[in-house]
Hints:
Blueprint: H1 2-18, E1 25-26, E2 33-34, H2 46-55, H3 60-84, H4 89-100, H5 103-107, H6 112-118, H7 121-134, H8 137-152, H9 156-176, H10 182-202, H11 204-214
Antiparallel strand pairs: 1-2
Helix pairs in contact: 1-2, 3-4, 3-6, 3-7, 7-8, 7-9, 8-10, 9-10
Amino acid sequence: xxxxxxxxxxxxTARTIQSGVIPLWNPHLYSGAPFAADNQSGVxxxxxxxxxxxxxxxxxxxxxWLVILHVWIAAVNAFxxxxxxxxxxxxxxxxxxxFSLSDLFITHIGxxxxxxxxxWLPLLVLCVHRALTLRSxxxxxxxxxxxxxxxxAGHAQMLLFLLMAMLLYVLHRLVVDRNxxxxxxAGSFLLAGLTLLIGLGGAAVALxxxxxxxxxxxxxxxxxxx
Length: 226
């Protein structure tokens, strides 16, 4: 997908943005088609925007550098999570290598938007962990920002996995903290809800059009079995 799908989209996005226009529409496909509403376009993903503004239309070499960058981001975020959970430096390095070089990132090395989204999973879990254990609004807001960035990266299924991981961690904390009482549990729900609200709200510019567009695609009519 990197050479045949994502690279052409990146070049079109960069060319359109540099002309001073937000690429909401693709006039070159069919008789014209929504572009930013295509979830995999990743038009508003911050690291994509930085690439377009700095280098213009990216070469294929730049696309490969983005692949490497997100493997590195995945490693750094996994290291931060491990250290945040109290693991020693050597153990955290092992966690970083295990996550960033896992089957997901290697098998999908050509599916950049999958890896872009997945790379933020450990940092999201760390933010939610800190928010719930420290009762910190600041960490909850930070988690929301991370979730928003992941949501803008352009892969709905992987974003769903991030949300599921967050939900599982919140449920874990409710079990661990079950003796703290209902008021404490309510506070945990509010902090997690704040993260969710900021995350989905921040990515709404990409997620809402994508939700509207999916009903007009062939995949939108597939049954679960298909």
